[in-house]
Amino acid sequence: MFPEDRVLVGVINRKRDLETVQKERWYRIPQVRMLNGVNAEYLAFFLSKAFGPKNGAIHCFAERQGLELLYRRDLLPREINHPRANEVYYKVQLGPIQEKSPPILNPTRRSISFIYTTWDRFTQAHQISDLYSTADYFVDRIYHALRSAGVPANRTWSAEYHDRRPPQIRVLCQDGPFVASPDPSDGGYFLDGQQPEDEILAGILKRIAEQGGPVYLSIPADYL
């Protein structure tokens, strides 16, 4: 374990999926949610509203030990009639499941999908906001605001890559991809943290419109 090791936090929405993680030691991720691959040494698991008193916190984690690409129907043969049965998923194979004590809580009920963080942040975190760098937190706020506005945005994280690339927001537009970053040297649309958030969103929406508008391939947050 090294401070710079990458930790990917995923969401578990169903009790049977937690049982799969604990007993069979694998976790599934839609390939369309991780187009750049699963770049992490560890996976941690945020339990959603199905888990009663454990709802809304990260209670466990495991080392990543392998990766396969499979159709959902092959991963979950008892769900072959699922609407996404023919879509491709990563099967992330896991080492022993370990308890995160104390758990990482979500007191502000922040919207959670996937979060990339580093091992040092993860081990010291007491709440979800502790997992973010300042740049990642800023980009994440803009990302969720765009998604709330119906824009099918994707994002990358500074913690996702060992070379610490700046985080980005990406939107596939009719006339090519729109890219935004809080790093002015990154070559995309500059996300200026000194501007009010509504002005930032207005500027992004204007630029997306100039590029022909977004291509709507929106993915629900609970897409599993």
Q: Let me know the number of strands.
A: 11
Span between termini: 29 Å
Q: Major β-sheet, in short?
A: 7 strands, mixed
According to CATH, what is the class of the largest domain? Mainly Beta
* Approximate strand percentage: 25-35%
**Average pLDDT figure:** 91
Predict the CATH topology of the largest domain: Archaeosine Trna-guanine Transglycosylase, Chain: A, domain 4
In terms of per-residue confidence, which ranges show pLDDT below 50 for 5 or more consecutive residues?
Answer: none
Report the C-alpha radius of gyration, rounded: 18 Å
CATH-level-2 architecture of the largest domain: Roll
Number of helices: 5
Number of domains: 2
User: Globular, elongated, flat, extended or rod-shaped: what is the shape?
Assistant: globular
Order of helices and strands: EHEEEHEEEHHEEEEH
Portion of residues in helices? 10-25%
Report the structural category: alpha+beta
Instruction: Determine the CATH superfamily of the largest domain.
Output: Hypothetical protein
